[in-house]
Specification:
Elements: H1 4-37, H2 39-50, H3 54-82, H4 84-101, H5 108-122, H6 125-133, H7 139-150, H8 152-168, H9 178-200, H10 213-229, H11 238-242, H12 245-265, H13 268-276, H14 280-308, H15 313-331, H16 335-356, H17 358-363, H18 366-398, H19 402-436
Helix pairs in contact: 1-4, 1-7, 1-8, 1-9, 1-10, 2-9, 3-4, 3-5, 3-6, 3-18, 4-5, 4-6, 4-9, 6-18, 7-14, 8-14, 12-18, 12-19, 13-14, 14-16, 15-16, 15-19
């Protein structure tokens, strides 16, 4: 791929794939993330209107992730079988309708059922998108590609933070509460996007009408070269992949980091209102600012990771910084300190998120990649179910968010430690494999 003509074909192929796929997937994931966590803003009024305790809210918030965890691996395997276009469109229309249906919730049981169904509907979107992009972008460009779609996560915070106060302000219009308007307006885009995905998302490079034959061949050759260049054993099979140190280790990292992230995020607007004495609208703009900083951090960290060819430190270091930010939020509870620590935590969270999925995607391929990436996500979602519920129980038991905040630094420190252990293990495997390669004299 070193001659100028081949390089030009490669640049053209990557540019077309980036512009055709990443904005579409990014908007889809942004809407998914917003529908997943918009209860954090709805809770500012919904919990009081419906008389939900912190533990009821935490259990309902976490049940989304339990359903997601149960169905994530089957969803990714179905995507591989039926194609990304039809399966992602199916995911989007069902979760969009259920997200709108959240406006009809009245009792704790209804809240639990709707959150569980919403998680079941959305299961597989994110790992499916990661797996999908692995078939379009060779490893040297994959970090930038995944961050190019994953940047929708911090940017969705910008949108949600900016509009949440306005939507909550519609309270009483047409007899609906403000939180009902929030669910209605923010659920509609997923329904519309399902049609767009069905129409415009190609299943694989070979079926993309906007790629030339030369560009399709360049992508296929690049992916094949990655496979040939990597030092790894043949595909070990489904069960061996699911029980491998890589999948279990990254799954535990995901469990700790995502659990802590969602425990905090689902209560962040309420916590910030109480800690800073800002209005709900002002807190929305603070959340939006965190999203913008996170987007910048995501781009810079992913590009640096690609440039250095290193993944592990680009995950571990931001996780340590994120834990330190939560520790500062606990020890320095002034309004300004809480706001600064919140912005730092959001920035570090996005930086780690930009790279964390590149660790398994660089080492897994084929059916094992589909199952392995989904399994890592599934383990993470179990933490995302347990942590918000535990956070709510602590809030009801102690009367404040302080106890939950004190746990978060330990979660991120342990997660960073596991990442560093995996890094050391990967270096040992690589060194052993290189020693086994015969040298021609």
């Amino acid at each position: 791929m070193s001659d100028p003509q081949d390089a030009a074909v490669g640049r053209s192929a990557l540019a077309k794939a980036s512009w055709r796929l990443l904005p579409l997937l990014g908007v889809g994931y942004g809407v998914a993330y917003m529908d997943r966590v918009n209860i954090s803003f709805a809770a500012l009024r919904m919990n009081a209107d419906l008389h939900f305790s912190a533990s009821v809210y935490g259990l309902g918030g976490g049940l989304f992730f339990l359903a997601y965890a149960l169905l994530e691996i089957p969803s990714n395997l179905i995507l591989e079988r039926v194609g990304a276009r039809r399966w992602i469109a199916r995911i989007m229309i069902t979760w969009g309708l259920l997200a709108i249906g959240m406006m009809a919730v009245r009792t704790p049981l209804q809240f639990y059922v709707m959150r569980f169904l919403l998680g079941a509907a959305e299961a597989g979107f994110f790992p499916g998108a990661v797996f999908y992009l692995m078939h379009w972008f060779p490893a040297a460009w994959r970090g930038r590609a995944i961050s190019g779609f994953y940047i929708a996560y911090p940017l969705s915070n910008v949108v949600m933070g900016a509009v949440a106060g306005t939507l909550l302000g519609l309270h009483g219009l047409l007899g609906l509460a403000g939180w009902q308007w929030l669910f209605l307006i923010e659920g509609l885009p997923a329904v519309v996007l399902s049609v767009v995905f069905l129409r415009f998302l190609p299943d694989r490079p070979a079926t993309a009408p906007w790629l030339t034959d030369a560009e399709k061949a360049w992508i296929a050759d690049g992916l094949a070269a990655d496979d040939a260049a990597q030092i790894r054993e043949p595909d070990p099979g489904l069960m061996a992949t699911l029980t491998s140190p890589l999948v279990i280790g990254m799954g535990l990292v995901n469990l700790l980091s995502l659990g802590g992230f969602y425990a905090f995020s689902l209560s962040a607007p309420t916590l910030l209102v109480q800690a800073t004495h800002l209005s709900s609208g002002q807190v929305g703009w603070l959340v939006a600012a965190g999203g913008l900083l996170g987007a910048v951090a995501m781009i810079l960290n992913s590009r640096r990771s690609d440039h250095k060819g290193e993944r592990y430190l680009h995950v571990a270091i931001p996780m340590v910084l994120q834990g330190a930010a939560f520790l500062a939020m606990t020890l320095l509870p002034s309004s300004i300190a809480v706001m600064v620590a919140y912005l730092a935590a959001q920035t570090a969270s996005s930086a780690a998120a930009a790279v964390i999925w590149l660790i398994p995607s660089d080492q897994l391929s084929g059916r094992s990649a589909a199952a392995g990436v989904a399994a890592i996500g599934t383990i993470g979602m179990i933490g995302s179910f347990l942590a918000p519920y535990g956070w709510g129980l602590l809030k009801d038991h102690t009367g404040s968010f302080a106890a939950g905040l004190m746990v978060l630094p330990a979660l991120y420190a342990i997660a960073a430690g596991i990442v560093l252990w995996l890094r050391a293990a990967a270096r040992r495997v690589t060194a052993h494999a290189l020693q086994a390669v015969p040298v021609d004299l």
